Amino acid sequence: MFGEWLRQQRRRLDLTQQALADQAGCARISLRRIEKGSLKPSKDLALILLKIIGIPESDRTNWIPFVRGLADIPTKQIDFNSTRLQTNFPAFLTTFIGREKEQAEIITLISHHRLVTLTGSGGVGKTRLALKVGEQILGDYANGAWIIELASLNDPMLLAQTIAVQFGISTQADDAYTELLINFLHGSETLLILDNCEHLVDACTQLADKLLKNCPNLKILATSREPLSITGEATYRVPSLELPDTQKVHEKLWICESMRLFDERAKLVQTDFALTVENASFVAKICQIIDGIPLAIELAAARVNMFSTEQIAEKLSESFSLLTGGSRSALPRQQTIRASIDWSWDLLSNSEKILAQRLSVFAGGWFLNAAESVCVGDGVCKPEILGLTTQLYNKSIILVDHQSGRPPRYHMLETIREYANEKLNNSGEMRNIYSRHLIFFAEMVDEAAKNFKGSEQALWYNRLDCELDNLRAALAWLDGGENTELRLFFAAGLWRYWKNRGLINEGRLHFERVLKIPSEPTLAFARALTAAGSLAYYAGDFSYSEQGRTKALLIFRSLNDKVGIADCLNGLGNTAISQGNYAATRMFYAESLAIRKELGDQWGIARLLGNLGLLAYFQIDYTQSRSLHLESLALFRELQDDEGVVNELVNLGDVLFCQKELSTANSFYQESAMIARRSKEQWGLPYAIKGMADVASEQGDLSMASSLYKECLAIFQAEADYIGLPFALESVAGLVLVNNRPEKAVQIFGAADALRKTTNSPLPLSNRATYQKNLDILQQKLDSSRFDLAWAIGRTMPIRLVIALALDELV
């Protein structure tokens, strides 16, 4: 009964079995058995499933008998439209213990203040408490509650981008993320949880201040070891868990929060563990010794499979006596957690210690193969890695994430990672381990770059998604000025990833750093120049792009590197065609194509055929353009290159649209959008949607056209694609004209014209007839003074306001 109901709810949420299993943290086969009724979910899994489905927290306990097959479905009706709340909170498989008083106090604070910061030492439970509070008040925020995990972020310049990406916002313009965030959050009722701010406190302070001042309905709940110190900030010092009163009878100890946490975590490593009259006093002593700090309790509880509770209490007492000279009252909280980790660390074998400190180089987690590559050496051999990893997991030094379809991924709590990294630094082998980390991920990027063209591109993009924090850490390590050649190759290999994932601004920032390094005209330097030119092109910075690629071309020619020469020529052709220099475009493309054919490079040939097809389109030779694009599409399909297929389908749609074959054009656009969404090819998606909107507008379906234009404008804005944005604005202006709002149409046309002049990207010949026709109509509707004023207003309007105007006009 529950299984069939669960299947219906999953379909209501438009989730596959795999997607729901991933969200719930269980295997797909388990979910399949649950839906078939052959498996009853555990209570923990049941609560997670009910949360995902949208059952309010206050009602979930009443649903457990139904989930477990012990009762009929509850009679209380749930309005799922109102309970499907927006959040990215993770699902936890361990229960939250106590803290009812703290939750109530923090909820009161957040109801009266727009910024509340939870402070306290590492390990006191700030993150879990913030998430628990967020769950409790999620329904108060129409636009959801979102956690931004900052522990593995070390570059303060990427703070605004990290938050923006969580909302699907990206841009290529310098310093634009904050403005886009303000624009995105301005009218929304949102709770933002900024977790682990202490190492980025200045950047967090500045950004939070700007967001709160410009977004009146935004509230921020921060966790940090120190306050942000912003006017209006309410700080809440997170206390330790409730400690037992050993003067009370033993039966009363069971209700104590710290005792309950110890009991539950101990059961994870020793399933038959139970609080008894015999061990309760020792557990109480343990909780008192470590001041009720949650992380310290979990570390101690993880030892019950090695020591009795009496032995744990005795060993902890010895450790703290040594630390404080026998005076427990003098023990600050930060010393407490450090001493707890010290004690846990001292219980590790020598090999376990060596591995743990080496694992601290990983940011955001690691897979076993990475540990085997980076951490082997003196004291740890490769065959031992798996066994040692298991032992470190059993001792709560590392955690493991299980997701269906991928190997287990490991990570450390940031408090323990900092401790282990300090040990690594003191060991004298930090430089060696960080160099291995760098080499491992540089090799991964090199392999990924080879597979960005073809059937495995989506697989490699997803792998790099998973390792983004490690890639950033490796690039930061490279900032030391060493390994110049490797640094250049590393950045050059990532440019397609940065472009595909809307991280062009971040990529350009890295190139700005690496290309400042004095370098001989080497192959690595030329490749980095070419890659930097490619990112500049997609950011609409054609001048920088042309300069960089011209310099790189000279180096490639001196080295007789034909691949590099062909790449540069193709890039220079792209810059030339975007600026309307068609003669130079043909020359660059023709030479590049000849080299690709000489090399037998089918991917390069497909790309050049498509580019030549685009040139023919811009010169209104639709027959030639159609033939070239079809040939290019066939090659990309054969190569199973989704990115190439997405682009060529749009190009073919554009040609057929101009030839008035609207139905066929629309089918190409629709297929392109479908593949783009499936493969997360963000760059091609808005062009396909714009094409569908153009078809709808031409067919007179203005409602559909408006909806599609809104969607493509939102993506162009998020991607800050200043190449495609003018085309979209001009199409929208034409629709606004049809809706008989001439002055607004002129403003949008003026803004598009200004954008084209900024990027030096003139209107192609293929678009000029419709463009001029619309301007002629507008000049007839408005006298010259009103037309000129509207045009001037549009040309001086900031991009975000232009897009806001366009969206307002699309009713």
Describe the structure.
The structure is a single chain. This protein has 811 residues and is mainly alpha-helical. It has 42 helices and eight strands. The strands form two sheets. A five-stranded parallel sheet has the order 2-3-4-1-5, with helices on both faces. A three-stranded antiparallel sheet has the order 6-8-7. Strand 3, helix 11 and strand 4 (218-224) form a beta-alpha-beta unit. Helix 32 (602-618) runs antiparallel to helix 33. The longest helix is centred in the middle third of the chain and has 22 residues, at 430-451. The protein is globular. The two termini are 44 Å apart.
Name a few traits of the molecule.
42 helices; mainly alpha; 811 residues
Distance from first to last alpha carbon: 44 Å
The multimeric state of the shown protein is single chain
* Molecular shape: globular
Strand content: under 5%
Q: Briefly, what is this?
A:
With 811 residues, this protein is mostly helical.
Please describe the topology of this protein.
Layout: H1 2-12, H2 17-24, H3 28-36, H4 43-53, H5 57-67, H6 80-83, H7 100-112, E1 115-119, H8 126-137, E2 145-149, H9 159-166, H10 177-185, E3 190-195, H11 201-214, E4 218-224, E5 233-237, H12 250-253, H13 257-269, H14 280-289, H15 294-301, H16 309-324, H17 333-346, H18 350-359, E6 366-367, H19 368-374, H20 385-394, E7 399-401, E8 409-411, H21 414-427, H22 430-451, H23 457-466, H24 468-478, H25 484-493, H26 495-500, H27 504-514, H28 523-538, H29 542-559, H30 562-578, H31 582-599, H32 602-618, H33 622-639, H34 642-658, H35 662-679, H36 685-698, H37 702-719, H38 725-738, H39 742-759, H40 765-781, H41 784-796, H42 799-809
Parallel strand pairs: 1-4, 1-5, 2-3, 3-4
Antiparallel strand pairs: 6-8, 7-8
Helix pairs in contact: 1-3, 2-3, 4-5, 7-8, 9-10, 10-11, 13-15, 14-16, 15-17, 16-17, 18-20, 18-21, 22-23, 22-24, 22-25, 25-27, 25-28, 27-28, 28-29, 28-30, 29-30, 30-31, 31-32, 32-33, 32-34, 33-34, 34-35, 34-36, 35-36, 36-37, 37-38, 37-42, 38-39, 39-41, 39-42
